[in-house]
């Protein structure tokens, strides 16, 4: 195992601050996607929305993430991580605040589409920057804790949303616009973040790379201490050919299988719990408890991501969480305690797949295309998430809660199968080693049809 200044650096205050400021993106994502579930109850009554309109409002942000994630990935690979790290938050502030003044369904959908674009753009920008500064020993946990903030944002949204919708007929307006407040605070905190020295060195901007390294690691560290990466002059087309095409297929499929049930549950948690006979205040309390358990599951996964390894953690996470959803579908008329226990079980057990959504894409692609890879995978996975979110109210009314939960469980178990066939092991590797197509430990021999290594 080779050593270098970045991959083997001790965990510093800078790393902790960068992890915290970077995690503002998933915090806002969780907040924005969850608070609409609270606001929709009031909006539906005032605007007399049908199921299709509710689904479009819930799915519009996910559609925006589809476009924003890939655009943000391409832009951050082309123009760097630092500037875009703050600009996307400015867009979130503006469009979130404008929701207060919206007058009809069409403009609410449009604004949430733009918010989604900004949210999606932040993912490849922030995770690329965090991965490229993180020591190998802490990279998995730091990227895992990054996604944990999604559930913190969701939990805060349920509490704030309940308080604000109680203000009267305009309560839902205050609830949706409230996302501008944390977005502003996060944008201010990110000011002054240095550019990734790996990206600067890859662009031949060696003086700037040295300055960034000195700022973070001290005067004794220069670009000569950086690991040597591929000189293949990679571009976005590399995501769709050779070993990188196989890696992109694996990441996109497992990511989709992980988030389709989860996003559907979050957008319509009160409605789903109500269908399972947990309505009213019990439904809201249940939503908050489940959200906290999602966060707990991610934290537990962060503890085990280095101990178990990436591959076994994800397989077990998909398998057992999928079985919990199947049981919810089979026992829709069970007691409230059993329903809550199964939902809590799903929330805790799915944590492994959630953190791997950000660990694998950042570890399996080189610096030149890392942002584009994360962005493209995030974009493609959101297609399924948007469709799933749109179909949830239609499925609840047309198929019933039992069948809806069985379908969610089947999608989750498909993720387990994909992981068994294709998931590689990257534990303990440097970014350069895990991204190299010829690295034996970053490949799997069980899936010749989608070989993750170069033939």
UniProtKB/TrEMBL annotation:
<dbReference type="InterPro" id="IPR005829">
    <property type="entry name" value="Sugar_transporter_CS"/>
</dbReference>
<dbReference type="InterPro" id="IPR036259">
    <property type="entry name" value="MFS_trans_sf"/>
</dbReference>
<comment type="similarity">
    <text>Belongs to the major facilitator superfamily. Sugar transporter (TC 2.A.1.1) family.</text>
</comment>
<dbReference type="GO" id="GO:0005886">
    <property type="term" value="C:plasma membrane"/>
</dbReference>
<feature type="transmembrane region" description="Helical">
    <location>
        <begin position="83"/>
        <end position="102"/>
    </location>
</feature>
<feature type="transmembrane region" description="Helical">
    <location>
        <begin position="372"/>
        <end position="392"/>
    </location>
</feature>
<keyword id="KW-1133">Transmembrane helix</keyword>
<feature type="transmembrane region" description="Helical">
    <location>
        <begin position="337"/>
        <end position="360"/>
    </location>
</feature>
<dbReference type="InterPro" id="IPR020846">
    <property type="entry name" value="MFS_dom"/>
</dbReference>
<feature type="domain" description="Major facilitator superfamily (MFS) profile">
    <location>
        <begin position="18"/>
        <end position="427"/>
    </location>
</feature>
<feature type="transmembrane region" description="Helical">
    <location>
        <begin position="313"/>
        <end position="331"/>
    </location>
</feature>
<feature type="transmembrane region" description="Helical">
    <location>
        <begin position="18"/>
        <end position="43"/>
    </location>
</feature>
<dbReference type="Pfam" id="PF00083">
    <property type="entry name" value="Sugar_tr"/>
</dbReference>
<dbReference type="InterPro" id="IPR005828">
    <property type="entry name" value="MFS_sugar_transport-like"/>
</dbReference>
<feature type="transmembrane region" description="Helical">
    <location>
        <begin position="172"/>
        <end position="191"/>
    </location>
</feature>
<feature type="transmembrane region" description="Helical">
    <location>
        <begin position="143"/>
        <end position="160"/>
    </location>
</feature>
<feature type="transmembrane region" description="Helical">
    <location>
        <begin position="55"/>
        <end position="76"/>
    </location>
</feature>
<protein>
    <submittedName>
        <fullName>MFS transporter</fullName>
    </submittedName>
</protein>
<feature type="transmembrane region" description="Helical">
    <location>
        <begin position="398"/>
        <end position="423"/>
    </location>
</feature>
<keyword id="KW-0472">Membrane</keyword>
<keyword id="KW-0812">Transmembrane</keyword>
<feature type="transmembrane region" description="Helical">
    <location>
        <begin position="285"/>
        <end position="306"/>
    </location>
</feature>
<dbReference type="GO" id="GO:0005351">
    <property type="term" value="F:carbohydrate:proton symporter activity"/>
</dbReference>
<feature type="transmembrane region" description="Helical">
    <location>
        <begin position="249"/>
        <end position="273"/>
    </location>
</feature>
<feature type="transmembrane region" description="Helical">
    <location>
        <begin position="108"/>
        <end position="131"/>
    </location>
</feature>
<dbReference type="InterPro" id="IPR050360">
    <property type="entry name" value="MFS_Sugar_Transporters"/>
</dbReference>
């Amino acid at each position: 195992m080779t050593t270098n200044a970045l991959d083997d650096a001790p965990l510093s205050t800078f790393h902790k601050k960068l992890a915290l400021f970077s995690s503002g993106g998933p915090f806002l994502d969780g907040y924005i996607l969850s608070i609409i579930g609270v606001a929709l109850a009031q909006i539906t009554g005032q605007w007399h929305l049908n199921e299709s309109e509710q689904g479009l409002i819930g799915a519009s942000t996910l559609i925006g993430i589809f476009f924003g994630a890939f655009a943000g990935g391409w832009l951050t690979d082309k123009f760097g991580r630092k500037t875009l790290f703050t600009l996307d938050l400015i867009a979130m502030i503006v469009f979130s605040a404008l929701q207060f003044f919206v007058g009809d369904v069409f403009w609410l959908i449009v604004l949430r589409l733009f918010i989604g674009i900004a949210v999606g753009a932040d993912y490849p920008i922030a995770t690329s920057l965090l991965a490229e500064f993180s020591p190998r020993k802490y990279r998995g946990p730091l990227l895992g804790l990054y996604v944990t903030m999604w559930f913190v944002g969701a939990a805060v949204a349920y509490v704030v949303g309940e308080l604000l919708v109680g203000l009267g007929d305009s309560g839902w307006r205050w609830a949706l616009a409230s996302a501008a407040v944390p977005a502003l605070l996060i944008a201010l905190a990110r000011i002054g973040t240095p550019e990734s020295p790996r990206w600067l060195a890859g662009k031949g901007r060696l003086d700037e790379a040295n300055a960034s390294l000195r700022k973070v690691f001290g005067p004794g560290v220069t670009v000569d201490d950086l690991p040597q990466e591929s000189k293949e002059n990679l571009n976005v087309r590399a995501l769709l050919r050779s070993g990188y095409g196989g890696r992109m297929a694996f990441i996109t499929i497992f990511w989709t299988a992980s988030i389709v049930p989860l996003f559907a549950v979050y957008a319509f948690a009160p409605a789903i719990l109500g269908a399972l006979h947990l309505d009213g205040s019990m439904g809201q309390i249940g939503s908050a408890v489940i959200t906290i358990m999602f966060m707990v599951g991610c934290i537990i996964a962060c503890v085990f991501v280095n101990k178990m390894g990436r591959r076994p953690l994800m397989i077990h996470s998909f398998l057992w969480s999928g079985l919990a959803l199947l049981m919810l579908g089979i026992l829709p008329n069970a007691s409230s305690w059993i329903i809550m226990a199964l939902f809590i079980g799903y929330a805790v057990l799915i944590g492994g797949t959630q953190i791997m959504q950000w660990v694998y894409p950042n570890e399996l692609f080189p610096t030149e295309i890392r942002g584009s890879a994360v962005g493209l995978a995030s974009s493609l996975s959101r297609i399924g998430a948007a469709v799933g979110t749109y179909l949830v109210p239609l499925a609840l009314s047309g198929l019933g809660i039992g069948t809806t939960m069985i379908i969610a469980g089947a999608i989750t178990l498909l993720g387990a199968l994909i992981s068994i066939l294709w998931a590689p092991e990257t534990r303990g590797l440097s970014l350069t080693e895990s991204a190299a197509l010829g690295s034996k430990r970053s490949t799997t021999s069980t899936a010749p049809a989608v070989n993750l290594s170069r033939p």
